[in-house]
Amino acid sequence: MKKTSLLIILFIQSISIFSQNQTNRVIYKVGLIESQSQELKNQSDERKNFVSEVKENLSKLECELIFNNSCSVFKVIEKINPNEDSFAYKKAKNFVNGLYYKNMQDSLKVTQVELSGKKYFVKKNIKEYNWLITNETKIIDGYTCYKATCKFEEFDKLRSKQLIFTPEVWFTPSIPSSFGPKGLDGLPGLVLDGRFNDRIYFYATKIEFNVIVEKKSLTLDNKIPIISQEDYNKMLLEINEKLKNE
Asked: What residues pair up with 26 in beta bridges, in sequence order?
């Protein structure tokens, strides 16, 4: 019964909202996950004050996801900030900086990075996450959302340690677009709330349909080279070795 209802919702919404290849926009705010704050209890006052500043700067940041039927772009909304030269602001922005692009038709997913002053698009697996969809639901901005979780491991060669990632998202089948904030995507519905590795979370505050944007908003800058994850990791190691030898 639940599966039938979900299919009906997907069908109706696909016709009513996405009958044409219109462009849509979601605004996300950014927050610090509370568990991160709890770890500060035994930290120095200076450290606590710094994290408090980072948290405050994070709360002022906004990101946008622009998408249509086949592709999406996620990035920080650039604004003038009087604290932009402070280390706390730079640290906060570093959590969400970069550009995340996905094109379903071309089976292309990339993340923009910068190394030694040069920009690159690092290619990701189009099916990056193996999500487990649960029966948990909650309402976000009037939309019924389902919780999905994932767990995977990666070896960090720079730090010589195994890293464990546990993304968690809430998506709504009522908006049948397989996109989300900061590359948290690949589900049968738009992600309205997402967190990555219990550090920060993104939550939708505004959803706009059929918006007018510049044509280049959903295209990649062809002047920026696309490289593989392996090549990117190799470049990081080379830069790290160079710094060690200086």
From this structure: 65, 207
